[in-house]
Write a structure and sequence with these properties.
- This protein is an alpha+beta fold.
- It is built from 18 helices and 24 strands.
- The strands form eleven sheets. The protein has a three-stranded antiparallel beta sheet with strand order 1-15-14, with no helix packed on it.
- The longest helix is centred in the middle third of the chain and has 26 residues, at about 245-270.
- It is globular.
Length: about 600
């Protein structure tokens, strides 16, 4: 990003880190792998070195990390924070336990930040607002909701995967449960005005009840960067909410209904016959382009404006797994000779958003906050993710076998899965996600990105007030009159990038749609299961992937790859012949080679 003065995020650390120890990133505990003594010691040393390097990186990026993990996408909009925390009071059957009611949609408590008053993945505007008590707090999702995951260790504890995937986060379930909660609160209402009246009364009654029992019910006396969300802060928020409760609740109800209606419009066009499972949702997955475009479509439709689903909604289903976002520097594009195009890099599954700040804004805009989207979140994320290390494999590795796998990798995989490879490949996988952006949607996206963040837009980054222009330049070259680079021509991106494989062990399940449970099944396509369990946190150390066998107990949901074309587990399953060179993708006739490759991939 372009900065108007030499101060950088690093320059702000001394103050920020000193005041954020409560919400800091502690040193990771060492795993206790069991392996033959020589390999055990050597691999443990490698683990130790990488864990320390990751901790050092995050310590140097505490400002950016906290904005990534905890700060909301919205400046002044979203879900009223008090209303959000009262939902389980109105319909406890729709939500999780009292300690974390959002576990019902797959958000979890971050054990590294025990005082945080809500699940990881939700932030509120009071964290970022200049005047702490100047307005009602609104909550929205954070980057961490999708992009901080977990793996369960052998001792039952968790390793957090910063920049990874929360394989349990289910956005569809959240939206469905909100509407069901409101339906319960407004049952028997005679019309829209009566619904707002009943819902407002229900929220106010619940508010008075919980606050009388606990003056810290909403914010838990949380403190961050010198800002205290104590009983006085909470009382002020209650006063602000009560001052305009009917309007606040009414707007929340309108948006909640619109979000669900928009999703149903998307399903009616692109998921016919599969609407039921899509309404239930899939943990760790979303049709982000569809969600983003359908909200604007439904809003116009609700206002009585003419709409055309064939033009305004995606041409194909785009349901995919969330992406890991560590080591983004390895996907960074560079300018061609005349600075007219960006080459050898990209973003998203098919490389269609090559400039990192626009890639981050695309993710933020999925929530539908429009002009109220906080560009600072995207700017901090760009700084953090460029060098965020991939997580080290936390279990034992047979380094002798891994060394054999390394040679196989270099001969068969490295040519494509290398840094700064901007090519797209069509290797038999379902191409719905690659084709989800039409020319009309791409044009609209370019306008949205560059309107929200034009080249002259300046934002002020806390805590030192550093002034930056996040969208002014890319690698020193002005982005003025380069709107076309905000999202590339869809015709040039008809396939998927071969991504760098750092932390590939934690990227399971595999392919863009998460249809292949383990590295073994990726390499031995003849044994790919038609159905398996997704969203488990235990790890299959032998096959290289999260636990997937439905016959074994555990959390998660059944995923049927034959239920809908977008879920197909076909692809990346046939050898590639390029001249005199054959790149092996199907290791069915050399399973020993496959196991060696898996052992090497664990070390990346």
């Amino acid at each position: 990003m372009h900065k108007n003065k030499p101060a950088t995020l690093a320059a702000a650390l001394a103050f920020w880190v000193a005041t954020t120890a409560q919400a800091g990133y502690p040193v990771s505990p060492m795993p206790d792998p069991t392996a033959p003594p020589a390999c055990h010691d050597e691999w443990r040393q490698q683990q130790d070195a990488r864990l320390k390097a990751a901790d050092a990186y995050l310590a140097s990026q505490q400002v950016a990390y906290r904005w990534f993990a905890d700060f909301p996408f919205g400046l002044n909009s979203g879900v009223p924070f008090l209303v959000l925390k009262l939902l389980p009071e109105l319909a406890p059957e729709q939500w999780g336990g009292k300690d974390n009611f959002l576990e019902a949609m797959g958000l979890f408590r971050d054990g590294r930040n025990p005082g945080y008053p809500i699940a990881l993945g939700i932030g509120w505007t009071g964290l970022a607002r200049d005047d702490a008590q100047g307005a009602v707090d609104y909550a929205s999702f954070t980057c961490g909701g999708c992009h901080i995951g977990r793996v369960r260790l052998e001792d039952g504890g968790y390793r957090y995967l910063d920049g990874g995937v929360n394989t349990q986060f289910n956005l569809a379930q959240y939206r469905v449960r909100v509407v069901k909660t409101l339906d319960k609160a407004t049952a028997g209402a005679s019309g829209p005005e009566d619904k707002v009246r009943r819902a407002t009364a229900a929220f106010l009654a619940a508010l008075d009840r919980v606050h009388a029992a606990d003056p810290h019910y909403f914010y838990k006396n949380y403190s961050f960067a010198g800002r205290r969300f104590d009983a006085a802060y909470e009382q002020k928020q209650i006063e602000l909410f009560k001052r305009d409760a009917p309007a606040i609740v009414g707007k929340f109800m309108t948006i909640a209904g619109l979000e669900l209606a928009a999703y149903q419009d998307l399903l009616a066009k692109n998921y016919r016959g599969f609407e039921g499972p899509m309404v239930q949702g899939f943990g760790g997955m979303a049709d982000a382009t569809g969600i983003s475009t359908s909200f604007a479509y439904a809003a116009r439709k609700a206002q009585g404006q003419p709409v055309n689903p064939d033009l305004e909604l995606p041409p194909s289903p785009g349901l995919t797994d969330f992406m890991v976002v560590w080591e983004q520097g390895k996907r960074r594009a560079h300018w061609n000779a005349d600075h007219s195009q960006l080459v050898d890099g990209g973003g998203q599954w098919n490389g269609n958003i090559p400039i990192p700040i626009y890639r981050n804004l695309a993710a933020e805009l999925t929530i539908g906050l429009g002009a109220d989207t906080d560009v600072r979140v995207g700017a901090f994320a760009e700084d953090l993710l460029a060098g965020l290390p991939a997580p080290v494999y936390p279990f034992a590795v047979d380094l002798a076998l891994a060394q054999k796998g390394k040679a196989l990798f270099q001969d068969n995989c490295a040519e494509c899965h290398k840094p700064h490879n901007g090519k797209v490949y069509a290797l038999g996988t379902d191409l719905g996600r690659a084709r989800v952006v039409s020319e009309a949607i791409a044009a609209s996206a370019r306008t949205s990105f560059t309107t929200l963040c034009p080249t002259g837009k300046e934002v002020v980054l806390p805590p030192e007030g550093t002034q930056v222009k996040p969208c002014a330049k890319f690698d020193g070259v002005s982005l003025e009159d380069k709107q076309y680079l905000a999202m590339l021509d869809p015709k040039t991106q008809d396939g998927y990038n071969a991504l760098p494989l750092g932390g590939v062990w934690a990227q399971a399940p595999y392919l863009h749609n998460g249809s292949v449970p383990t590295l073994y099944h990726l390499l031995v396509p003849s044994e790919r299961p038609k159905a398996f369990v997704k969203s488990r946190l235990d790890y299959d150390q032998k096959l290289g992937g999260f636990a997937w066998d439905a016959e074994k107990p555990g959390e998660g949901y059944r995923f049927d790859t034959g239920a809908f074309p977008a879920l197909s587990n076909q692809g990346h399953d046939k050898d590639i012949v390029d001249g005199n060179k054959t790149y092996r993708l199907d290791w069915s006739q050399d399973k020993a080679g496959a196991m060696a490759l898996i052992e090497y991939l664990k070390t990346l």
